[in-house]
Automatic annotation (TrEMBL):
This is Glutathione S-transferase family protein. GO terms for cellular component: cytoplasm. InterPro entries: Glutathione-S-Trfase_C-like, Glutathione-S-Trfase_C_sf, Glutathione_S-Trfase, Glutathione_S-Trfase_N, GST_Omega-like_C, GST_Omega/GSH, Thioredoxin-like_sf. Keywords: Transferase. GO terms for molecular function: glutathione transferase activity.
Length: 331
């Protein structure tokens, strides 16, 4: 399977299943406790967003979660972490089975995160940007006491603006570097990426979080890329002007979030490295997974408290991860 675009520029297909799960059920899928299953892979940055938001909002008892393994083939993500390679709730070995249950001729990529309707076994949505916003705004009846306001109405316009630039220039920017098929395409992508990282460094030099005084959806979206930067994107995707650990403001910001309950405790560095270095065989044909970098420094003091703000505002952090959802994290 080839990921590099031989024509030069990498262009992501952004057409997703736009069905939404809403409080009023206008798309035919009302919010109901226990009805849906969130399918993710810890390796995937887009899925990592959903894992974080579900945990921050305390939706564990309302929305079950299924974990795919860190690698996949051309057909689908698979449940190879589960006994017998079958998801214990959906009773399927491949996520594609849920896509085909709703769209028998589905021809696009089988992506995570995806939410599946358990009674029918059919996928509802894989629209990852809207999915996390809906968890914040449509599932409010089931948020835990003290849950953060990740998408507060007064700040939505600014969150949307910042998030859009983060998506095009950073979240997708690293892929544009890694999957570029020509020198010119790569260098253009590289310049765009580091221009955006410099902008973020300037923005975060004087404020603790991206928008307002608490964590928001924008911070979630940036964090999942920053967490993967040194283990994967710096080398594998050739994003090597500097390591994250050599960008003082962003490195301190990333450590601040990593040490905040709900963020770092969702990150599985071993699965992340396995995914990128094994699956992208056209970039890394040996499939050898790097041993480094040393990750213990994620737990060092960051000093960002001096900028004010509180991660959860007047709310509270989530409790420890649930049994079966803990990351085997050796830093």
């Amino acid at each position: 399977m080839s990921y590099v675009n031989p024509e030069g520029d990498f262009n992501r297909d952004t057409k997703y299943i736009e069905t939404r799960i809403t409080a009023d059920g206008r798309d035919g899928y009302p919010v109901e406790p226990g009805r849906y299953r969130l399918v993710v892979a810890r390796a995937c940055p887009w899925a990592n967003r959903a894992i974080i938001v579900r945990r921050l909002l305390g939706l564990e008892d309302v929305l079950s979660i299924g974990f795919c393994g860190p690698t996949h083939d051309e057909r689908s993500w698979t449940f190879d972490l589960d006994p017998g390679g079958v998801d214990p709730v959906l009773q399927i070995p491949r996520l594609q089975d849920a896509y085909f249950a709703r769209f028998p001729d589905y021809s696009k990529g089988i992506t995570v995160p995806a939410i599946v309707d358990v009674p029918t076994g059919a996928v509802v949505t894989n629209d990852f940007p809207q999915l996390t916003l809906d968890l914040s705004t449509e599932w409010t009846e089931y948020h835990r006491p003290g849950a953060p306001q990740l998408y507060p109405e007064p700040l939505r316009a600014e969150i949307d603006e910042v998030s859009q630039r983060i998506y095009t220039e950073v979240n997708n920017g690293v892929y544009r570097c890694g999957f570029a098929g020509s020198q010119d395409a790569y260098e253009s992508a590289y310049d765009r990426l580091f221009t955006a990282l410099d902008w973020l460094s300037e923005r975060l030099a004087g404020q603790r979080f991206l928008v307002g005084d608490t964590i928001t959806e924008a911070d979630v979206r940036l964090f999942t890329t920053l967490a993967r930067f040194d283990p994967v994107y710096h080398g594998h995707f050739k994003c090597n002007r500097q390591k994250l650990a050599e960008l003082p403001v962003l490195w301190a910001y990333a450590r601040d979030l990593f040490q905040t309950p709900g963020f770092g405790d969702t990150v599985d560095f071993a699965q992340i490295k396995t995914h990128y270095y094994v699956v992208h065989a056209d970039i890394n044909p040996t499939r050898v997974v790097p041993k480094g970098p040393d990750l213990a420094n994620w737990l060092t003091p960051h000093g960002r408290e001096a900028l004010g703000g509180k991660p959860f505002g007047d709310g509270t952090p989530p409790g420890p991860p649930r049994d079966g959802e803990r990351v085997d994290q050796t830093l």
